[in-house]
Design a protein that fits this description.
homodimer, alpha/beta, Helicase, Ruva Protein, domain 3, four-stranded parallel sheet, 6 strands, about 15% strand
Chain lengths: ~200, ~200
């Protein structure tokens, strides 16, 4: 097997540590870097440090921001009496792409998972309870992944928040465009369980 | 659509310019960066600049190296009378992964493509002819992609080098494990054309 010249090997190693980047993609990215003009690489390197140093968490909802509060929390057009609870920023982004939700968020930073020693104290749940108890909130929508960890976390939060406000969770069911025949049993069972009136 | 906080948006833009990286992957990579310890990001940033500044081309074969000559050219165990011509470093890497070839290389840096205004003078073909005319070479193996551009380039090089030495090209045919039924017509025609004696 060929061994790369040292600075190149080191760069490939860095890329390999990225999520979803295998050895072949890492090689391709590193070779791409070598072909770029020096300015591009300096800018990229600068941008990495800048983003890392300047982007932090919103003080209310823990979304990413370089200000004290994130853009969503500062937007007066969004309903601040509605909070959607998500595990990670990427889930918030997915919901924003759907362009359906116009309320605020609370990013708890993960899911309760005893197997990975992640208890509720490691998540932004305390801050959520505080936020809900101190403000007038009409509804909390839980948008966590349908899994053991997601359901556990939803249940845990629902118990804590139901004294203060209405708590709902997003629907589980058939994905749009799916063929009933190929949908897995668990999803089908959940879809049946969650059936709603048509008229 | 959500707009990212500026330093994050800039970083995502950088990642999006990478080959094979779409907007979603770029977001994922940028979010990954934000989660890393500062040291990792500093090291990565350093590694980018180092690789970019220190890795250049081998003076004999134009492979990537941080020395004057690449590791393959410096390796006394490799047959220097055998040169395999490839378009890009990534093709050289693919051949090295096959662990079959033990000669030297010549990376010409692309393929002749009048459509993209790439003429032979933009490629390392002159240096190849010089190398072949000045050294005792037993065989030149052309390993360029089977395409109009690849074939044109192979033919061009073969005409220039055949006065000096034997010129061959790697075989075109059925890929291992393929089902005859699903192989495209052009490949099948090439495979028939290139048939060899069994015994």
């Amino acid at each position: 097997m060929i061994t790369f010249t040292k600075p190149l090997a080191k760069l490939i190693e860095h890329f390999e540590r990225f999520p979803g980047i295998g050895p072949r993609t890492a090689q391709r990215l590193a070779l791409y870097i070598l072909k770029q003009p020096e300015k591009t690489i300096k800018d990229f390197s600068q941008s990495l440090l800048e983003a890392h140093n300047n982007v932090g968490q919103c003080k209310s909802c823990f979304n990413l921001t370089s200000e004290l509060e994130c853009e969503i929390c500062r937007n007066p057009d969004r309903d601040q009496k509605l909070i959607c609870v998500v595990a990670e920023t990427k889930d918030l982004l997915a919901l924003e792409r759907a362009r359906e939700y116009k309320g605020h968020y609370h990013v708890i930073g993960g899911l309760i998972s005893p197997m990975d020693s992640i208890g509720p104290e490691l998540l932004e749940i305390k801050s959520l309870v505080e936020r809900v108890s101190k403000n007038e909130i009409n509804e909390i929508i839980l948008a966590l992944t349908p899994s053991v960890e997601g359901d556990t976390t939803s249940l845990y939060i629902a118990k804590l928040l139901s004294p203060f406000t209405k708590v709902t969770r997003i629907a589980y069911g058939l994905p749009m465009g799916s063929e009933l025949e190929y949908v897995d049993e668990v999803t089908l069972a959940r879809a049946l369980e969650g059936r709603t009136d048509i008229l």
